[in-house]
Design brief:
Blueprint lengths: L1 H32 L13 E13 L16 E13 L4 E13 L1 E7 L2 E22 L8 E19 L5 E18 L2 E14 L9 E4 L2 E10 L3
Length: about 230
Amino acid sequence: MMGRLTNAAAIFALAALAGLFWPASDAAARMAYGRGGEPPRRPGEPSFELVFEGGLAEPMGEQDGTFGEGGGLGAAAGYELGFRLRQYLGGWLAIAPTFHYVDFGSASGVGDFPEGQDLGYRVSTSLLRYGVDLQTFMGRPGDPVRLMLLGGVALAHNRYHDSLQYYQDFETSMNGPSWNAGIGLKMRAIELSAAYVWNGFETANLTAGAETRQYDWNYAVVRLGFAFGPQ
């Protein structure tokens, strides 16, 4: 319960930080571009932005399940870091190759295993996502606030690592397709968004009997981003 309250507080802090930057960004743009606060843009001119973003990642599926029950890993909230190279295809549509690294909070404790009783353990998961997103924007280029919708596909490289007292560490990785959808606000160079990521795969690497089964490592993320390039 305390973990989820901490996550909520952190998400509120991100939103508050974006709110502090919003009026300053708008005022600076108006001073730079004069009346109307809208930068000049030639119709049809290519426009690129490099966006760096980071945020809080909340695990779902087996990662959020109780450790040792039905494939549950007991992972806690972690962080996501990444970037996207956005190319506008018009005033309201953009395409962006993306990369994100996600590291979830590890699970640790003392438990009973086939190897012995009362053994200390630690389990951690992370992933790398290589994808392409489509984004749509409401309003006009140069507006101080624009609603944005996003969706995309990616290749997810899922990584697992565990340590068991007195035994050698074990690590493995699995690849699988991934999808995401989200919504956000673009406030000139500052972006605040939330997305849900579907991330499922099949593997026999995580079962003692080498039995292939389906895993669900979905997660939700709240991001704060900074865009560099024409606005």
